[in-house]
Amino acid sequence: MTASNASALDLPRRASAGGTGDRGSLLLRIALLLGALLAILGLTLFAAVDYWISREIESVERDRIERHVVELRERLNADVRQLKGLASLAAGDSDLVHSTQYHVRLSGEAKAAEQDIERIATTLDFASAALFSLDGQVIARSAPPATVKSDIGLGRTTDNSSDTSSSVVWDGRKLWILGFAPVQSEGLMLAWLRVERPASVNLLLGDTPGLHLVPSSAAPGPTTIAVVGLDGRLTHLESVSDDRSGAIIARAKRTLGAIFLLGGLVAAAAMLLLLRREMRPLRELTKAVEAVGRGDFHQRVRSHGAGEVAALTDAFNSMAEDLGRLRGMEQSLREQEKITAVGRLATRLAHDINNPITVIKSAALLLRGRLENDVQTSNDLDLIVRHADRCANILQGLLRFGRPLRGKPEWLALGALCTDVIAQARVRWPSGQWILVPGESDCTVRADRGQLEDMLENLLNNAYETAPNDPIELRWGEAEDGSFLEVRDHGVGFSQEARDHLFELFFTTKAHGTGIGLANVYATARAHGAEVVVRNEDGAVVRIAFPAAKRAPVY
Q: Which among 27, 190, 395, 463 has most CB atoms closer than 10 A?
């Protein structure tokens, strides 16, 4: 039957693979044709963007720069006229004229001239002001010239011209207005007054993002301004834009071209992906069938659409769910059969072994009473008694695991139960560090007190043997779906192997363990309708999660 099922599964797969060959070939041709059309369209759009949009943006940018230069020129001319008038006004200052005459006649006395220069610079808001003799020597100055080069324009001091003049100077960073005016007395030239201040267009440059001035070797044009450099020579500044629109357009054109050139391939790939998408439910269904064949009944396939494939997917999911339920029932049945077999074995062992063990223990106790003076023999008899007790405990554990747990259920307060168990643990293991962590509010469960005490003692014993020198915590409290008891140690935690087989009978990781304690914990929890959850969290954590109080425990 298995071979027949395998054949049935293989036939649709081969049929679907053969049926999609022609369709895939047709789809590939359509995708290539669509890709070619998109590529042609992309090239056409690329040429349009290159010719029209680029030209338009360049024209707009050029007009913006020219308007900016016109505004700069107008403002510079206004600054030049203003400074020229101020320089003429300052040169005619009577106190400055008198102090200059005083300097000329007393051959070098310049204190009064320096005071007048300082006053004029402060009053008229000059960045600097200086008084030069006719041979170009400094008589007085208010501050070092902001343009650094103090001899700019001083060549005119040797000219016969006595006109007031001003010029625009570029210091490499910003523009300055430089003005010269003759200091005269009764038509006689006494000295030259030089003043300077920053051009107001510097503020305009700062307020116009993307535009700035740079030295240019190009011929004068609508985008250049004539200025004087720091070397005193005439130079030209050109208004340029650092707007990245040109670079962005160039990059966009390259990107757009690449996108449309690859558009055809992308379209073809999209069509192929569409076919793969249509076939995906069948591929997923095939993988899920193989997984179910391996025993994984949790496999589910997401339903796509509402066609035949969706109906097949729903039928498979329903089948997998039913098989999983049957597997769970089978496992429960096997577990019950195991418990029943262990119960029979435990009953037989109780009858066949318990009585001889009791006789051996009793005889050893009698002999120890008679031979109290023989220390060596007494020690040997104590060893026999201890091992007899151990065998009896193992038999009792087997009996508890094998027979149905029938107790006397009552409403128990978990807080009081945990307090008593911790008190007993401190007496039994006085060297342990026992910590009780109460919940926020008291909670009750309906259970057999003795069975819960045995279950907690088993968990505390395992925790103490695992980490005897670390704190061991017993917690209780309420969860969203009921109450819980939790034992936590701070040891190495559970290995993956231990977690896989933790509650199996006779499984143990200890050298002298019996593998019965945690199996009994599991049996007790299940008898009370609780679940056992283990995890590693800074050590090992075992939680017994009880159902809500309104649900009665199972016995």
A: 463
Residue 533 has what DSSP assignment? E
Contact 521, 458 (CB under 8 A): yes
**CATH entry 3.40.50.1820 includes domain 410-547:** no
pTM attached to this predicted model: 0.39
Helix (H, G, I), strand (E, B) or coil at 543: strand
Q: Which string of b and e fits 267-293 if b means at least 16 CB within 10 Å?
A: bbeebeeeeeeeeebbebbbebbeebe
Q: Where are the domains of the chain?
A: 60-247, 288-403, 410-547
CA neighbours within 13 Å on the CB side: how many for 29? 5
Closest Cα partner for 299 from 310, 312, 285?
285
Of 85, 93, 228, 215, whose CA–CA distance to 154 is shortest? 228
Q: What is the pLDDT of residues 398-451, one digit of tens each?
A: 666 655 556 678 888 888 888 888 888 888 888 888 888 887 777 888 888 888
- 196 backbone dihedrals φ, ψ, rounded to 5°: -155, 155
The span from the CA of 416 to the CA of 445, in Å, is 12
Contacts of 386 (CB under 8 A, 6+ apart): none
27 contacts: CB under 8 Å, gap ≥ 6 = 271, 272, 275
Distance CA 266, CA 34 (A): 10
**CA-to-CA distance for 119 and 142, rounded, in angstroms?**
8
Spell out the alpha helix ranges (H) of 294-307. none
**Residues 336-366: pLDDT tens digits?**
677 667 667 766 766 677 778 888 878 888 8
CATH for 60-247 is 3.30.450.20
3-class secondary structure, 128: strand
Q: Is 58 left (phi over 0), alpha (psi -120 to 50) or beta?
A: alpha
**Which residues fall within 8 angstroms of residue 256, CB to CB, at 6 or more apart?**
42, 45, 46, 49
Three-state SS sequence of 166-188: EEEEECCCCEEEEEEEEEEECCE
- Three-state SS for 487? strand
* 98-149 pLDDT, tens digit each: 888 888 777 667 788 888 889 998 898 888 888 888 888 888 888 776 554 5
CB 459 within 8 A of CB 487: yes
Asked if residue 554 lies in contact with residue 332, where contact means CB atoms within 8 angstroms, the answer is no
Give 355: exposed, middle or buried? Use CB within 10 Å, 0-12, 13-18, 19+. Answer: exposed
Could you tell me whether strands 211-216 and 234-241 are parallel, antiparallel, or unpaired per DSSP bridges?
antiparallel
